[in-house]
Design brief:
The chain is α+β, with helices and mostly antiparallel strands. 18% of the residues lie in helices and 20% in strands. The structure holds succinic acid (SIN). Succinic acid binds at residues 203, 205, 213, 230, 232, 237, 239, 255, 272, 274, 322, 324.
């Protein structure tokens, strides 16, 4: 736990909330010396090398989704958090660009669901990328230009669409899960000892430099023996990992572009939050993330055009995207159906749940809402 922040916490109080506020604070800026940085991960009293299964994923399978051979991954565990695995950027140089482009251009497309669908007509959210690409980097002549749709994007859901109101998934609120993201998640979970993981839902969170994500536990999935997988792209963040109650003071860690977290076992149902977005460190700067020219035969990584990459760069120079992938279903259990009264229809014709708030608060406005 952060010593500075911890010294402010009195016994019995909501230690998570206090430390969340400590790192969210702008003035005076918080002291970041206690934030664990796996990037320069030197095993010590807090972090230790995590055991992976390199035989579970061949080098070819890894390369097809843009990953280094598993034996080259730098994976760590954290003292006091059994089942938590942090993989420091296992991506091959040049493959970030593909995944960033998917998060910005492909996954926000229909039939996937995003926050903009809650208050805009479907025809207007049909082509978020196309309607934003031109304006995104344009210099304004003194006046502030209106935000593009991409800059207003806060979340996208894939597969079983999470309902923020009821905090549930439902059997009749589902669209096809992207095959490429399924493949990436499959290789990572297999290497981490979960060869049967099935990607059934994802939530993409889009953070601007002043965004944060409130304190929550991901417990809506039916099988908590299956891990939760988290990918970060773009700017960096402080991630807080707490305990099973809010009185447990959280550990603060940096998440940089390309970092992957696996929350499993006893760490699957812990409180966590993102109080702060920070500029990426120099060695993870955007210029190092550009597309590779060579493509892996049979891989899922299509080339990213210079034009698309220019748009991605303009977006992520001040933003972060996080993707969490979940298995929703459990053997012998079924999801409820969403009652017709709480359904709405999109232009694509599919029925979607109504997302609006929920305990783990999200807002459809310009900054992510924080529950503290
Ligand atoms: C989440 O907990 O849903 C996302 C966390 C993150 O943005 O790293």
């Amino acid at each position: 736990m952060a010593k500075m922040a911890a010294s402010m916490v009195e016994s019995g109080e909501d230690a998570f909330r206090k430390i969340f506020k400590f790192y969210k604070r702008r003035e005076p800026p918080p002291d970041l010396r206690d934030v664990t940085d796996f990037c320069c991960g030197v095993p010590g009293d807090k972090i230790f090398p995590a055991k992976l299964d390199p035989a579970a994923v061949s080098d070819e399978e890894a390369a097809r989704v843009g990953l280094k051979p598993v034996r080259d991954w730098r994976a760590f565990g954290l003292q006091g958090y059994p089942g938590f695995i942090f993989i420091s950027n296992p991506f091959l140089r040049g493959s970030h660009a593909f995944w960033i482009r998917q998060c910005l251009k492909t996954y926000p497309q229909k039939p996937n669901i995003c926050n903009l669908d809650m208050h805009m007509c479907p025809a207007d959210t049909q082509d978020i990328w196309g309607r934003s690409a031109h304006d995104l980097g344009s210099a304004s002549s003194g006046k502030r230009r209106p935000k593009t749709l991409l800059e207003k994007l806060r979340w996208v859901t894939l597969g079983y669409h999470y309902n923020w109101d009821t905090k549930t998934y439902s059997a009749n609120n589902h669209t096809v899960f992207p095959a490429d993201l399924h493949s990436l998640s499959f290789q990572i979970t297999a290497a981490c000892g979960f060869p049967e993981f099935s990607s059934e839902a994802a939530i993409l969170n889009y953070y601007r430099s002043d965004s944060s994500l409130g304190i929550h536990v991901d417990e809506s999935e039916l099988d908590h023996t299956r891990p939760l997988l988290s990918f970060s792209f773009g700017q960096s963040a402080i991630f807080l990992l707490g305990g099973t109650c809010r009185q447990d003071a959280p550990t603060a860690m940096f998440m940089h572009s390309g970092d992957v977290m696996v929350m499993s076992g006893q760490s699957r149902l812990l409180y966590h939050a993102v109080p702060r977005i920070l500029p990426a460190p120099q060695e993870r700067a955007l210029e190092n993330l550009g597309p590779a020219s060579a493509q892996q035969d049979g891989g899922v990584l299509e080339p990213v055009s210079d034009e698309d990459w220019a748009v991605c760069c303009r977006y992520i120079q001040s933003s972060r995207v996080n993707v969490t992938v979940r298995q929703v279903l459990a053997p012998g259990r079924s999801l409820p159906e969403t009652p017709p009264a709480s359904l709405q229809r999109t232009a694509g014709g599919q029925v979607v749940g109504y997302h609006d708030g929920g305990k783990r608060k999200r807002s459809n406005s310009d900054s992510n809402t924080v529950e503290t």
